[in-house]
Amino acid sequence: MSILELAGLGKNFGQNVAVNEIDISIDEGEIRGLIGPNGSGKTTIFNMITGFLKPSRGRVLWQGKDITGLLPHAIAKLGLARTFQLTTLFRDMTVLENVIMAHHLHIRTTLWQQFLKSTESRQEEEEVQGMSLVLLERMGIADRKDEIAGELPHGYQVALRIANALATNPKIILLDEPVGGMNPVETDETMERIKSLRNQGITVFLVEHDMRAVMSTCDKITCINFGNKIAEGSPQMVCSQPDVIEAYLGEEVSCSL
Amino acid sequence: MARNSTNKLVGFIILTAVMIPLPFVVSGYKVDFLTMLMVNVILAVSFRVITTTGGWSLAHVPMMGAGSYATALMSGNLGIPFWFSMPLAGLVAGLIGFGISYPLRRTEGFAFFVASFAAGEALRLCWIRFKVPFGGHQGLVVPPPKLIPGVQWLDFSEAIPYYFLTLLVTVFCLMIMYRLDGCRIGSTFKAIQSEENLAKSMGINTARYKMLALAIGSFFAGIAGVLLAHRLWAIEPAQFGFSTTLYLLVWVVFGGTSTFYGPIVGVVVLSIIGELLRPLADWVPMVYGIIIIMTLIFLPGGLESLPSRMGIPKGRFWKIRITYENR
Predict the structure, then answer these.
(1) Interface predicted TM-score of the whole assembly (ipTM), two decimals
(2) CATH code for the domain of B77
(3) Which residues of B touch A (CB under 8 A)?
(4) Exposed/middle/buried for A97, CB within 10 Å: 0-12, 13-18, 19+?
(5) Would the pTM count as exceeding 0.95?
């Protein structure tokens, strides 16, 4: 059964058609890649799914339910987490404080209890801190927990970005260029972590430019160009499509890896 | 935890060693200067509650005015004693703040400035237009505070008793706002300022938190307005105009907003400079102008950023960062 389905989703910016009726259906437990040249509309699609942009047409279906036009925080509550393209973090907070903040949806106490620091609120904060440490451990950045997030090396920032998204306890995670700007070793580490998400029952939908990473990780790839879907299928199949090769002119070599 | 107990200690020392003996040392009108200084401290710190979510509301001084007008009407016409009129006037300001926050909640940056300014001016126009009950341009007369009806064992129209009343209320307000800053709500405010979209993607209803911040900030601005009104004995719409807002902005920019003590330092230092320049009163706005330009060029983080600029590492100084303290 598909967990997330885009039905004829599209977006216009004024006269420009950024995304033209896209249909994508993602199965539970899948790792799906979304590729396409710069400006082909990948991030726009992510923004429409997570409520940061209102679609001009079409629908977003979450486990069969229409969630088009819900606000971002409401969509996060349903179990869709996302990361942003640039390393978007609370830069002035420490690593641990970032993840504690990211556990917002686990907070059950009222604002009043938080203000009074009631026993329940203290217990809850302690629980959240424990969960945060476990999560940091899992992402391999627990030893950096007291450093200021903005001062971390790039690779760790990306790991923290994913940890922040995982803290919302999502069923699906949308990763916007998770390995952008990384060296090959960091890329491999990150892709391994992404693969391990599947074992925890999390579906992954990712946008990435690094073809080698996409090819080795994804079960299925969707390729778009100028806001239209031009190919979909297994990595090998998508790679061999003439349309895809044309869109990525000169990059077909990397597909053979 | 160590950081927090240091903060409390510093606050306690300032209170007992400086603020309590001070009115007996200085002469005459200077006691009133200190009273006004505390009112401005509440105003600036309550303004910071709003700025921690990222919005610099230009309606904050009119919110103080709302508190002044509310207490003037309640204690003047209805004879409600001070202990009731003060929180009620705060609530009135808080409710008005909450009301204007609804249209403001999704505006950002420049739009937020303009919309909040318009909301504040609209409020001021109400005071001018509706001569009953607000008294138009002349404003209203405010009676000295009646603490307990019938019992007047202390005359609060005198400077020194009023100073201590103000001190009591100020300490109480600062303690509440300090607590707010240190609990999860305060951290959430700062998270929204830092990366609003990231906060949204974590399921935080940022619009709701911004409304909350504006309401709480306005409540304490209203309390500051109550203290102002009962000391000035008369209020008029002009006091809550844009020039006062500019002073507030200068204090807060000069002190900085990322720490709790930043705005306090800003108000205290600039007020003392203003007081020293009293013989040159006409020049004070120009001095303020130079100070704000210099601050923005040479000290963009405000006075509070001095320790880290002097090489004292973060956290070593009594700098409050986002804390999950006391466990």
Answers:
(1) 0.88
(2) 1.10.3470
(3) 179-180, 183-185, 187-188, 190-191, 194-195, 197-206, 212, 258, 314, 321-322, 324, 326-327
(4) buried
(5) no
